Amino acid sequence: MRNLPVSLWIGGALVGVIALAALVSLVWTPQDFATVAVSERFQPPSARYWLGTDQLGRDVLTQLMVGARNSLTIALVAVGLGGALGTALGLLAGAKGGWTEEIVLRLADFSFAFPALLFAIMLAAAFGPSFANAVVAIAFINIPVFVRVSCASARQVWQRDYVLAARASARGGLAITRDHVLPNIAAIVIVQATIDFAGAILIEAALSYLGLGVQPPEPSWGRMLSEAQTLLFLAPQLTVLPGLCIVATVLGFNLLGDGLRDLADPRREKAR
Amino acid sequence: MPFLLRRLAGLVATLTGISLVVFAVMNVLPGDPALTILGLDSTEDARAALSAQLGLDQPVWARYLDWLGGILQSDFGTSYAYRVPVTELILERLPLTLTLGLLASILTIALATALGVFAAARHGKAGDWVTMILSQLGIAIPAFWLSILLVLLFAVTLRVLPSGGFPGWAEPLEALKSLVLPVTALVLVQASVLARVTRASVLEVAKLDYARTARALGLSPRRVMWGHVLPNALVPMVTVAGMQLAGLITGTIVIENVFFLPGLGRLMFQAINNRDLYTVQALVLLFASIVVIVNFLVDMIYLLIDPRLREGRS
Amino acid sequence: WARTEITLSTQQEPTVLDPTADATASIDSMLTQNVYESLTSVNEAGEVIPALATDWTVSEDGLTYTFTLASGVTFHDGTSFDAEDVLFSFNRAMAEDSTNPSKRIFEPITEITAPDAQTVVITIDHTDAFFLFNLAQGDASIVAPESVDGNATSPVGTGPFRFDSWTRGDRLTLVRNDDYRDLQDGMMERITFRFIADPTAVTNALMAGEIDGTAGFPSPELLPMFESDPRFTVAVGTTQGEVILALNNGRAPFDDIDARRAVNHGLNRQEIIDGAMYGYATPIGSFFPPSDANYVDLTGLYPFDPEVARSLLADAGIAEGTSIRLRIPPFAYATRSAVIIQAEMAAIGLDVEVEQLEWAAWMDQVYNGRDYEMTIIAHTSPNDLSNFTRGPNYFYGYDNPAFNTLWDQIVATADPVARGALLQDAQRFVADEAVHGFLFQLPSLGVYRTELSGYWVSSPVIFSPLADLRWTE
Amino acid sequence: MYKIRNLSLSFDGHEAVRSASFDIPRGARLGLVGESGCGKSITALALLGMAPASARVSGSIEIDGQEMAAAPERLWRSYRARKVAMVFQEPLSALNPLKRVGDIIAEPMRLHLRLDRRAARARARDLLVEVGIPDPEARLDQYPHQLSGGQRQRVLIAAALSCDPQLLVADEPTTALDAHVAGRILDLLKRLSETRDMALVFISHDLEAVARVTEEMLVMYGGDIVERGPTAQLLADPRHPYTKGLIEARPRLDALTLRADGAPRPRLASIPGSVPALADLPKGCRFAGRCPIERPACAGLRPAVSVLGPGQRQVRCLAPLLPAKVPA
Amino acid sequence: MSVVLSLSGVSRAYPLPRRRLLGPRPMLQALSDASLTLSAGETLGIVGESGSGKSTLARLVMGFDRPDAGRITVLGQDINALPAPELRRLRAGFQMVFQDPFGSLDPRRPVGWSIAEPLLADPALDAPTRRKRVAEALEQVGLRPADGAKFPHQFSGGQRQRVAIARGIVTRPRLLVADEPVSALDVSMQGQILNLLSDLQAQMGLAMLFISHDLALVAHQCDRVAVMHRGRIVESGPVAQVFSHPRESYTRSLLARPETKSADNRELVNNTP
Ligand SMILES: Nc1ncnc2c1ncn2[C@@H]1O[C@H](COP(=O)(O)OP(=O)(O)OP(=O)(O)O)[C@@H](O)[C@H]1O
Ligand SMILES: Nc1ncnc2c1ncn2[C@@H]1O[C@H](COP(=O)(O)OP(=O)(O)OP(=O)(O)O)[C@@H](O)[C@H]1O
Ligand SMILES: [Mg+2]
Ligand SMILES: [Mg+2]
Description:
The complex is a heteropentamer. Chain C has helices spanning 25-31, 83-94, 131-135, 199-207, 223-227, 257-266, 269-277, 306-315, 332-347, 359-368, 401-412, 416-433, and strands at 5-10, 40-42, 48-50, 53-58, 64-69, 109-116, 119-124, 161-167, 171-176, 190-195, 213-214, 232-247, 282-283, 322-328, 350-356, 374-379, 437-449, 452-453, 470-471. By secondary structure, chain C is α+β, with helices and mostly antiparallel strands. In chain C, strands 1, 8, 9, 10, 11, 12, 13, 16 and 17 form a 9-stranded mixed sheet that branches. In chain C, strand 8 (161-167) and strand 9 (171-176) form a beta hairpin. The longest helix of chain C is centred in the last third of the chain and has 18 residues, at 416-433. The relative contact order of chain C is 0.16. Chain D has a domain at 1-83 and 169-178 and 199-252 and 268-318: Rossmann fold. The model of chain D has no long low-confidence stretch (mean pLDDT 87). Chain E has one domain (3-270): Rossmann fold, CATH 3.40.50. In chain E, 36% of the residues lie in helices and 24% in strands. In chain E, the strands form 2 sheets. Chain E has a 6-stranded mixed sheet with strand order 6-7-8-3-9-10, sandwiched between helices. In chain E, strands 2-1-4-5 form a 4-stranded antiparallel sheet, covered by helices on one side. In chain E, helix 3 (111-120) crosses helix 4 (127-140) and helix 4 (127-140) packs across helix 5 (157-169). The longest helix of chain E is centred in the C-terminal third of the chain and has 18 residues, at 187-204. Chains in contact: A-B, A-C, A-E, B-C, B-D, B-E, D-E. Chains B and C meet through helix 2, helix 3, helix 5, helix 7 and helix 11 of B and helix 4 and helix 10 of C. Bound molecules: adenosine-5'-triphosphate (2 copies) and magnesium ion (2 copies). One magnesium ion is lined by residues 40-41, 171-172 of chain D.
């Protein structure tokens, strides 16, 4: 693993820890996350409650772990959906050019002009707040980003001589897109995805903070933050911990994205 | 210039599209303005009467056309909830949000440029690392959380700044003071993003041949940086700064709520909660126009920066 | 030298300032009986007292009210007040196209006349024990035809304070009405309300000294902190707000009384009060404020017992793990209680899904559309046992002629003692039917500067007169 | 003027330039040839004290008696443009696209010669005339992209000349240009060097170009200067097999008259293989492995420089070729 | 000798951005009224300065772009009148080698895959046959079959161009279009590649369209030459004839050797493009 960028290491480590916590929470958590025990509230850290308990006597570590799972799942599904759809549209636009491209890009511009958070709020208001709607809202916000990125890079790839060579080889548009364009823009799209992933975590936190995200008893970092906000004077750790988790995750994904971009940068290879 | 005309047509098309979407969404949203206004104890006939008063008994398309007709006479409708012309509502709050946005934008750009250039100039050294670590943190911290921490420190503990609210423009000093924390919360996050773009873009340009030419002609590093590298690094910076404005608008919605500032962002929130269609409509259109206009300005700035683009070549 | 200015905060922000046109509670809390006055008023004990009507008589049959109006009263815009204004206000509220949020108050009225400028006679079609009480509400404010159209933005009334300015989204300022007929020494010259929705922000503003007090403090968990701070006094009182876990009686599974009783057995009120309200609330077993003289404590009717609850559910044929939607409005008491209730219901085998709705959406879907199984809501109106008479179209989905008869009797009974006994019967009736899960009475929580006095600790009505506010040394 | 002794530049311990020694006398025109990656550009950059930061530089660079190899950047900066200036390969990318031509040329003069705006502009105009750009007054206010490739290259040369340097380093100044335009630039460089008594280091892999411009040439391969001597002699009579290979690989236009219509196409001579990466270069003679006359010893042993005959000819080869028959 | 390529009256114009609002769209005539023929086994050189339309011609011949006017016949078929499936079948018969050996190979594919790509269109060829043909092609261009597993960045520029040529000949085409095939290479490498092209041509009877701005290369490599200037073919004929007795003044100016010219500054100024 020589010569990997530092950011990749740190980012990978942060994301790894969070992802591990999320995975572990699938099979084991210190306590049951939905169990409410008001008599046990505001316990300090102990052997039983490693990070203490919150205002309803729930184990904070458990909440954070399951919160990680929820945040990551939402971000993953949302960015995955948005990325897949956006990239598909971008590839289409990049391949067809002309009117198709014009229309797709105009649509992307159009959704850019629509304040993202506002859209999420409206969606949540229309269909009721839920896990699924948070996913859809975030995915939707992500589509135009991926459209732009993938269309621009696809257009560049289509200019390359090897695509001309493929056309001379009687390959069709679909085959060229599959065999040449997609693999060559994959790195850029993946980098974009990691960065958007960080953004998705932030939006999910903001949505949950506003009560529009994951619904109780499923914990979410954003909601933990908003619920514990008034407890800042009583139990600051209840605000600080989920905040730190968000920061660590976003930081982790951003660093990972940066590292991957460095890694994918062809100049890096040349300079070696 | 076909360019201007095309952009104008694009703006109108975008805004029409957005107005349609907003109208449709607001109609799909569960919630009856009359019920929201009159509350749980209201009687059906009172609600019916209010609905009629507000024109809500008309079909959607009729209301849309009506509204569109109003727009052409620069009448943006009357707020259901506030019972005053939407224009008045918006004009009332525009100065605050505008000040907030402009201050934040200017400071963001100034801070980001300074930090980005500083980091790039110290590429790979301690100064670069510290700046970049701080900016990574800046990006990662949710603005609302940062706001809470700022208030706790400066308003509650140190008591040097107000915890929120806005005293009005009558006392300019107090007004500015009340904007310090919100602007800080906005700027720290946005400037972090832009500083990174600045740094990357500056480093990119510094590698190019003409930067080398400038150095080969014996120019000092500072002169090369400010005279040759930075101007050329501006294009991506301006692009990102332009996109950030959209983020800034979303940011003000959150920040104004956290600091209970009577600005457009908060009005937007309340308007959605009140199902105040025309206010939402006008605000979304305003925000969207700002985004589109800023994009347009960004393109103009490209032209200003880059003589190659001025000649209508791609 | 005494301070005569004060800054208070209110969580909710009004969009208009006319209580006869909009139900927003903060309009009443800021303006009713402060800027606007009604014929009657209510004191902190919940008793009807004179206001613009200095005196009144009720006919033998209880159907004709004759009010004597205060003389020499002027509206804040200088126009004089007389019986014509009363007629105007009532006719406006009762009109066909009236959009008064509590039009129901005026429903009994059959005739209203003004024999002379200082007298108003109102005839109603059935005896109504709550009529005078209702007339004190902001919805029955007396407004002047000259100024009524501007009330939405610059209210004009006859009260001790006149409207000064309103910066939408930020603050509203009242100044003392020096022409007030009952001006007292030390009354505030200027009262500023700041609109601060966020409980943390309210706390910060209090701590930072930017506001002097707040009623309806939303975060009971912070009260101990204020209690231990010598700068502040914490005022804990009662309200008319019964917080219930409303069950949709109109559809399965809660059309079955066993299911409803099971829920009641499954609720651990103390845990909910401790968890959601940090102990600052009184448990209720029925739908009646404990502060009322006629209150019966029915909290023991369905003792907390998950086992009994489970077997009742089994009796009702409800399978373990049945999924139930708990659709709640975005209020602190509801969101906080929901999580605990969810856990408690899980313990008796009900899988409760919590869904937090926007207020507008809640009103539309839950209240209007009756599309819910469970919800949590505080009923803050006084005398609202009548809700149970509102039939199948009301969101309770509860329809019981026996209760309707009982309520008619209560309304028609003028004798306080007899009526009291009937009210107690009604409480038992509702509790016995287990119409809802009855949770707790919403406390009135206020935090004020220690030097301040004259504020209402309890809230028998949604308005709160401020004429008695004083700074003390 | 320039005295370079044992100049080495290495990246990650691999020598990209291996103890090069040469002088650049005042007014001399020196050619530097070799295939891509042979170390021409970094040698040139070292002449301006601008070797890449990642390169480790050793040896000595003496300018007018002043040792500069370890000199601080500040000192180098004061030498650039005045003592030594450089013209780069890509004419468009080497010019700041946002600056007017006049400003590009004037900037070093205003900085180093402390000329005011008017004087600098006047001199910039004169320089444009000198490098042969038509309508110089109008060009001063144009942007680089508005000029043709040849004109851009001239602007670059004008900027390099602005402070009257004693040495002009031109690193492949014509590869991006048409043969047609390139020829003119070459002539310009030659003429400028003559009229200004300015030394010129001309870098190219095009032997014809070097022949046209320079008096003396150095042939580089794999970081070694493998052969040097007067240009005409060296081209007519290469002694290093690499130089010979380079000369022969090139098809020549005048050869076509020999080939009548339908006649068989002659085969082109070529150097087999290609330049290895820096890390894969043989330790001894860099050309080992591609050399047609290689001996077993070549790969392990770095040949010493042998001085040939009279004049300045030197070759770094164990078994230099025999002198060619002098053509009639 | 059979004609493998013929162009008659081919034109192509590119639209430029409007100068005035609603004004006419200026067009750039990149190619006008070009006619030429190329027979089997023959090499036709196209020379001309930068921007004279050489690459445009190549793109049209390869069917990457359509002419505004004129007819392009490849192997007896009008490629712009041919239905898409038939054009695909025909494509095996004419291939191309690009200028930039770095850009013409997909960096993410092993070169063997890239060389096999033109064979994918022929359903009759199964995977083993394709592998065999790829190995053959690699050997023909002087590489080892095992090199097919390597990625482009593992080759030097000259080797990469060999790979590109291998891809060009793997379908055993009858026409090879080479647009500046050696101008990105080192001098020493140019000879290797040109020799290779000559050898292949002799082996396979290939016709070649050889595009270059370097007269020496064209003189060496081609049998006939067409000189292009501003989109027009101004002169054409056997190489020796055109280059030794140019008829057109433009051709003469191309051939003029600058050092034979007077270094008169005025003339230099006037001729600057
Ligand atoms: N910054 C650098 N880092 C690492 N290696 C470098 C760097 N710059 C140059 N090199 C290596 O040094 C060697 C010489 O490079 P140089 O640029 O001087 O070649 P050149 O002879 O100018 O070739 P060309 O004709 O392609 O310009 C090459 O092997 C190159 O890879
Ligand atoms: N897609 C296009 N859109 C607009 N103009 C184009 C396009 N392609 C080529 N041109 C223009 O057409 C003219 C001919 O271009 P072409 O690429 O054929 O020239 P060339 O002779 O190959 O030049 P070079 O030697 O530089 O490769 C040029 O002026 C070029 O700018
Ligand atoms: Mg070089
Ligand atoms: Mg070309």
